[in-house]
Amino acid sequence: MPYSLDLRQKVINFVENGGAITEAAHTFGRGRASIYRWLSRPKLSATKVKSRRRK
């Protein structure tokens, strides 16, 4: 499930204003890898799910 654009913006703002990535991960309940991925994107935009796998 993709995370909301609002949540991603809050996390990015937290880190850009001096918060540590590990602290952001604990505060917002997201993985550090996700936060690093969000920070590496040149443009923050909504993501589309290409395909879903059924169990």
Topology:
Layout: H1 5-16, H2 21-28, H3 32-40
Account of the 3D structure:
By secondary structure, the protein is mainly alpha-helical. It has a domain at 5-40. The protein is built from three helices and no strands. It has helices at 5-16, 21-28, 32-40. The protein starts with a helix and ends in a 15-residue tail after the last helix. The model has no long low-confidence stretch (mean pLDDT 86).
Can I get a quick summary?
The protein has 55 residues and is mostly helical. It is built from 3 helices and no strands. α1 (5-16) packs antiparallel against α2.
Anisotropy-based shape: globular
Order of helices and strands: HHH
End-to-end CA span: 15 Å
Task: Extract low-pLDDT stretches.
Answer: none
Average pLDDT, rounded to a whole number, is 86
Strand % is under 5%
- Helix content class: 40-55%
Q: What would you report as the Rg, rounded to the nearest angstrom?
A: 12 Å
Give the helix/strand class.
mainly alpha
* Annotation field: number of helices: 3
Note the main sheet: none
Extended strand count = 0
Descriptors for this entry?
single chain, 55 residues, mainly alpha
